[in-house]
């Protein structure tokens, strides 16, 4: 089967390879459910990547994302303890705000890292960019874990913590774009949604791991020990993934072909306008997803600080809801391959918009474990489904020669502006108004803006998959040895 690259040039025929892993089996099952829509769509090119997706490729591509959200979850879960260690004040609210502000410092350097590492991935390849970002990220987490407290080294402690967050932000800025591009380029065209869904699923896996570690530590350690060094144990576990992550990423096959990487592709005027439209809408949707994710992740601190729920119970509820989010992310990818990208973005977003305020009202008024578990679990399940559809739609809509850098930059700016400010804004507004419903109003605003942008997004699900292409993926062992032309 002949394929085309991001510049529209026809490349050599590529013979698909049968996926010999549990991921490949899932993709095979997905392809049997694949069907085409008669809806007018943007027709993405079929990238000349090897049509094979192994467990190692998925884990290697997403391990940096896992570390990012594990660290995010751990920092959120232990924001109070970290604030007491590095920002001791007589005012507990001021200590918490300083801790959250330091957490937000890492978002300042994200756009810089996105531009540098994202563009590097479009020139040198996805693998070297992902390896560089993961190395810096792990080093930053380790520095944060071993930095002595304020009582030990004084002002040097918060200074080192801020430096670690800045370095980590730079690394994280160039992580999501190249890895999302890699997953899309490494997957068969009819199963890109499922392949890319491992990106948001990895975020939920990391959040689940963070909640699990927090739950275990809170159950096995005294309050004094948890405040003193329990959070350091949690961060050290994340830093310990460095050797394994480097081994995984060093063995990944490259999906960016070097001849194309150094050619500046001249896009027609219409294509340039389409790119700008997708970039603009993608920024709004990413801002919406960012606010939802970070406010939801803040629910552990919210439950303990505002609703006065015990730490073990708060961690357990977060753990269960995040575990459901893993299944929701993968389900979103499956549905996006089956029903198209726009439909799977829009309808769950509408549902989440209608659910948000009633759920928070129920949690705030009942203050029960059942309400917190049911409400947070429902919001996580419904709110995670659109992510997979959006991620693959965004990656498909961008040309290959700018895909990694553009996705990384848009993601980084959305995270820097809205992710780094979400938790401090919500905490400050709750303190100012005394209303426990502040997170609901903030999420409602974000969901409405995201829904508007989703309605404007074009459909990017492949329409140009020929019967031969589907057959080669479904029954690869019957392929003839010679090449097949479209």
**Taking all residues together, what is the mean pLDDT?**
77
Query: Which spans have pLDDT < 50 for at least 5 consecutive residues?
Result: 1-20, 29-51, 258-268, 465-486
Q: Structurally, how many domains make up the residues?
A: 1
CATH class: Mainly Alpha
Helix content: over 70%
Question: Can you give a write-up of this model?
Answer:
Helix 4 (92-105) packs across helix 8 (156-173) and helix 16 (311-339) packs antiparallel against helix 17. The chain has 486 residues and is an all-alpha fold. It has one domain (54-251, 268-458): Up-down Bundle (Growth Hormone, Chain: A). The chain has 21 helices and two strands. It has a two-stranded antiparallel ribbon.
Q: Secondary-structure blueprint of this entry?
A:
Layout: E1 3-4, E2 10-11, H1 22-32, H2 55-77, H3 79-86, H4 92-105, H5 110-123, H6 126-146, H7 150-153, H8 156-173, H9 176-186, H10 192-220, H11 223-239, H12 242-250, H13 258-261, H14 269-297, H15 299-305, H16 311-339, H17 341-366, H18 369-397, H19 400-433, H20 438-456, H21 467-474
Antiparallel strand pairs: 1-2
List keywords for this structure.
486 residues, disordered N terminus, mainly alpha, 21 helices, Growth Hormone, Chain: A
Short account of what is shown:
By secondary structure, the chain is mostly helical. The chain has a single domain (54-251, 268-458), classed as MFS general substrate transporter like domains (Growth Hormone, Chain: A).
């Amino acid at each position: 089967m002949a394929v085309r690259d991001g510049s529209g040039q026809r490349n050599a025929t590529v013979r698909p390879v049968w996926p010999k892993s549990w991921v490949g089996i899932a993709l095979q099952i997905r392809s049997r459910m694949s069907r085409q829509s008669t809806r007018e769509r943007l027709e993405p090119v079929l990238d000349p990547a090897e049509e094979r997706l192994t467990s190692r490729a998925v884990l290697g591509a997403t391990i940096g994302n896992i570390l990012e959200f594990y660290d995010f979850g751990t920092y959120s879960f232990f924001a109070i303890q970290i604030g007491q260690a590095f920002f001791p004040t007589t005012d507990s609210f001021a200590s918490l705000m300083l801790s959250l502000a330091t957490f937000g410092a890492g978002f300042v350097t994200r756009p810089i890292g996105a531009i540098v590492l994202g563009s590097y991935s479009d020139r040198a390849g996805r693998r070297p960019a992902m390896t560089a970002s993961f190395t810096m990220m792990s080093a930053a987490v380790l520095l944060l874990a071993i930095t002595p407290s304020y009582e030990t080294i004084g002002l040097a402690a918060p200074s080192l913590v801020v430096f670690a967050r800045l370095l980590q932000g730079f690394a994280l800025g160039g992580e999501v774009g190249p890895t999302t591009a890699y997953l899309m380029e490494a997957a068969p065209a009819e199963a890109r949604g499922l392949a890319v869904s491992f990106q948001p699923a990895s975020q939920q896996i990391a959040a689940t791991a963070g909640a699990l570690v927090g739950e275990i530590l809170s159950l096995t350690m005294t309050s004094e020990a948890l405040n003193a060094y329990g959070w350091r144990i949690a961060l050290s576990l994340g830093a310990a993934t460095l050797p394994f992550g480097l081994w995984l990423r060093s063995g990944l096959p490259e999906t960016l072909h070097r001849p194309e990487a150094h050619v500046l592709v001249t896009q027609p005027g219409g294509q340039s306008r389409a790119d700008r439209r997708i970039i603009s809408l993608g920024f709004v949707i990413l801002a919406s997803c960012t606010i939802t994710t970070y406010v939801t992740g803040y629910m552990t601190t919210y439950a303990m600080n505002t609703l006065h729920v015990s730490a073990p119970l708060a961690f357990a509820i977060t753990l269960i809801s995040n575990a459901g989010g893993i299944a929701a992310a993968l389900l979103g990818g499956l549905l996006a391959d089956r029903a198209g990208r726009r439909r799977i973005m829009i309808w769950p977003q509408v549902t989440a918009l209608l659910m948000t305020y009633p759920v928070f009202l129920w949690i705030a008024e009942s203050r029960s474990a059942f309400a917190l578990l049911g409400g947070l679990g429902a919001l996580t399940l419904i709110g995670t489904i659109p992510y997979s559809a959006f991620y693959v739609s965004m990656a498909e809509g961008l040309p290959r020669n700018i895909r990694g850098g553009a996705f990384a930059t848009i993601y980084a700016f959305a995270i820097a502006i809205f992710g780094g400010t979400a938790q401090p804004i919500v905490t400050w507004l709750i303190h100012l108004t005394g209303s426990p419903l502040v997170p609901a109003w903030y999420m409602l605003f974000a969901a409405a803006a995201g829904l508007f942008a989703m309605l404007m997004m074009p459909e990017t699900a492949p329409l140009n998959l020929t019967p031969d292409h589907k057959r080669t993926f479904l029954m690869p062992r019957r392929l003839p040895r010679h090449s097949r032309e479209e």
